[in-house]
Every structure is written in C-alpha cells, then in structure tokens.
Amino acid sequence: MSSSCSRCCDEKCASKVPIFFGLSQEDLKRVVSLIVRKEYEKDEILVLKGSNLEGLIIVSKGRVKAFRDTLEGREQILYIFSEGDFFGEKNLLQNRDVTYTVQALEKTHICMIKKVDFHQLFRTNPDIGLKVLQELCNRLYHLENALESIGSRSVEARINSVLLDFAHKFGQTHPQGIMIELPLSREGIANYIGLTRETVSRKMSLLQEEGIIKMVGHKKVIILNKEALDQPVI
Amino acid sequence: MSSSCSRCCDEKCASKVPIFFGLSQEDLKRVVSLIVRKEYEKDEILVLKGSNLEGLIIVSKGRVKAFRDTLEGREQILYIFSEGDFFGEKNLLQNRDVTYTVQALEKTHICMIKKVDFHQLFRTNPDIGLKVLQELCNRLYHLENALESIGSRSVEARINSVLLDFAHKFGQTHPQGIMIELPLSREGIANYIGLTRETVSRKMSLLQEEGIIKMVGHKKVIILNKEALDQPVI
DNA sequence: CGTTCGATTGATGTCAGTCAACCCGAGTGG
DNA sequence: CCACTCGGGTTGACTGACATCAATCGAACG
User: Chain A residue with minimal CA distance to B144?
Assistant: First the structure.
C-alpha cells in the first residue's frame, strides 16, 4: 500500500486529476498522503446505489460505468468515468446516498480521499472548491447534451452523438480517421442511449455500409467521416 | 429601481434564495445592494442560447423554461426554474456562453448579480461557494433522474415522472389530493419529455379514466392517487 | 479446434407519430 | 346575453419504425 511504486503512482494520479491542477508541490504531497488506493477487476462493483460512500473517488486507470436500474429492469447508464474523472461528490457535501451504481468496465485503479480529509483540504485550499465547481458545471453540460440527444426522437441522432462522445473521450488518431476502443458492448451502448442492442447493431451496420464508420472486430470502431456524424439527421 | 418598495422586494428575494441562507444581516444587505432587478412579461426571452451573460440570475417571482432547439426543430426543455432558482452559473466561473435559451412562462421578476460582484462576494464568503456547489449537485440529481425517465422507453413512466416532478415543485395540498398549476401546455410537456402533444393528451386522458388524476380546465391537474404514479409501469 | 457469448440478421407485432377532424373554453364584439 | 372566433386540447385512423422473438453467425479464448 505504501511501497515506493504505489506512492509514485499516487503522485501520478493526483497530478492527472484536473481538480488538483495548480496545487503547490507541498500541497500535492499532502494530497498524496491522504489518498487511499484500490484496484478493481472487470465487472466488480465499486459502489452500490443507495449505499453510503466515505469519500471522493478518482479514477486513475481504467474505465467504469455509472448506472441505475430502471423500473423496466434495464440499466440506464448515466456516465462513463475514465482516467482523471471523479465521482461521489454528492456525498461529499450533502449527506446523500449514492444515486447510482458504479461498476468497472475493465481492470481499474482508483484513489479515494476520505470525506473529512477532503473537507480539511477544502478549507486550506479554496481553489479546489472552484475546481470542483467547474468540473460539476462540465458534468451538467454533458448531461444537458445527453438529455437533448436522448430526448430527440431520432435514433440516428442518438447513435451519432454517442459515437462522437466516445471519439472525444477515447479516440486515438489513426491513418483512416479516429480509432475508438469502445468502453461498452452493443448492449451497453443501447443502455446508454435508451435503445435495444439489436437496433444499435442494425444502425451501426448501416453507418458502416454508408462508409461513415468501420468496425474492427466488435470492440473497436474507426470513424472515417466525422463530419457526417455531425450532420443534422431528420 | 431603488424605491423603498423594490428594495424590500430585493431583500425578500435575497432571503428566499437558498444560496444566501445563513448569511449575516450585513452580508445580506451587501448582497441586496449588488442586486439588479428586472421584470419580464410572459413569452419574453431572458437570455438567448449562445449569448454572453453578465451574471448570475435568480428568479424571484414567476416561472421560466430553459430549453434548446433540437436539430429536428423541436424544443428540448431542460429545466423549469421558479422562485428561488438560479441560472447562469456556467458563465460565472468559466467563460462559457449560455447553453440554453431561457423564456418566461408567465410574468416573471428576476434579480441579477454581476459576475465581478459575485466573485467578490465569493471571496469574502466561501460558504456561498459551498451553497452553489450543493445546488449544482441538486441540479445534477435532477438531470440524472430526467435522463433515467426519458431514457426509459416506457411512455407512461415519463408522464408519471413529470407529473410527480411538478407535484413536488408546484403542488398545493387539496382536499382531493395534490393540485398542480401546470407551468407548461400539453405541447410544452411533450417537449419536456420528448413526446408529441397528442400522445401526452391521450396518456393524460387515460390516467384520468383510471381515476389517478383529475384535470381541472386545461391548466390544472389534481393528483388523486400519488402512489399509482410511483408504481413501476411495464 | 471447439466452445461460448456477444453480435448480427430476419420476420413479425405493437405502439407512438402523423395527419386530420372536431371539441371546448376563453375572450370579443354586437 | 348570446353568437363568433380562435387557439389549444382531444380524438380517431392509419402508418412506420423500433421492439421483440428467434435463428444464425463469428470473434475471442482456452
């Protein structure tokens, strides 16, 4: 837990996280000393909806999904958190229970800062509060966009927007366009945008036929024509 | 603008707003001195998507809707803000343009605090930052719920959840149940939950036939059986 | 090479959207 | 006080797109 390697990882973790950008060396060291690390295997549950979380959790490696079970029995995926993202902020300030279940999509490392420690940090470094505020604004922005595109009745628009979203978050430049390592299965994508896996499958096949994307196996996609995805679909 | 009446209204305004709860008398007075008031008639636009907003806007009387125009030409309503709610926070901290258009649903009074003034206030009263943080968490919570219910394919679930939402925000106790003064027309409700006005109409008629709600004119609804709306709908 | 689980494809049914007609209540003017 | 008008709300018939069910495929792993 406190070997020199994990410590170095901690520092890397802390410095990767936007909310700690701009901290002095000493402050950063203090943050690192407060961090508790943990690892999760694929499919492991990090937190369960309705449980009480003892702190703020920052993803330092890997990807997780945050979702709720709908009344119909589906999962509604709300967020995909990856390197540098954090969650658990609602519990930090208010004494709310977690409002979603978080599950690892792959092997994942996290850092946790306990509630009391964060409060302490917050008091001595008001800038961190500002950073958190900004990050929450970003998340609001993300959700507003998601709501707009899901509220949109056009299924194509939803698919396009989720592909662009993934390209933005996980895309790598590639000779033919943008290569995405998909964080979710077809079913996962379906649960993200409120469709069935079959429909997602069909629509993605269509996009491939049209030469807009190219599937590489099932877990990778190359976006060949990004502009086409941005076009308004009626 | 600074007659004794409007001043008294200002104080009422400031004290009604959760983010100013817990301020000392002097601080409250300072806030009041910074407030600029404005009034809007029904249907007037308060801010236009993409424009730049000079400050934080607090609704002190009336109701407004925040929406975006979708690619399909529909409005996607994101929020209904009423007494005590604020918006414009994204512009306050980051230099983002407004991400939605805000329009008055009825005659509305607002208070505005300029960006610089707010920053000043923020520096001398860090607690306000915490309050804003909490409020943003609430809004995240609201959007997550909205996403869950819109993402849900069940149309009934969407209608039920918007009715419960309105009951929570605008409901008055009534001998027969909860009376709601609807902030939106059928079309508005449809735009809120991603349906058509006809479907909203049909489903609400159904709910009335089942004895779960009762419509009073077109603008009021009494919820007779709140529990039924909470039931999982397949 | 075989097994397994996810992805795809096909056939069918259902339900919300669309278009169109009609209703109703509020406001207006005779 | 009633007739008229107008805009939102309701209702009906039809259509089409997505869900559903079922069969098949195929990639990834041992």
Answer: A78
Distance CA A155, CA A175 (A): 29
Total structural domains in chain A?
Answer: 2
Q: Which two tokens stand for residue A24?
A: 């002095």
Domain boundary residue, one of A94, A129, A148: A148
Residues of B (59-88) placing their beta carbon closer than 7 angstroms to any atom of strand D are none
- pLDDT tens digits, B192-206: 998 999 999 999 999
Nearest chain B alpha carbon to A100: B144
Q: Is the CB of B202 under 7 A from strand D?
A: yes
How does DSSP classify residue A100?
Answer: S
* pLDDT tens-place string over residues A207-218: 999 999 999 999
pLDDT 10s digits, B119-139:
888 777 777 777 888 888 888
Q: What is the per-residue pLDDT for B120?
A: 83
Question: Which parts of chain A have pLDDT scores under 50?
Answer: 1-4
pLDDT of residue B2: 41
Whether residue A63 sits in one domain with residue A131: yes
CATH code, A191: 1.10.10.10
User: Distance in angstroms, CA of A199 to C1' of D24?
Assistant: 17
Residues 172-231 of B with CB within 7 A of strand C: 194-196, 198-199, 217-218
A169 and A93 housed in the same domain? no
Alpha helices in A19-171 (DSSP H): 25-34, 89-93, 115-124, 126-151, 155-170
Look at B147 and A76 and tell me if their CB atoms are within 8 Å: yes
Asked if B70 contacts A152 with a C-beta cutoff of 8 angstroms, the reply is yes
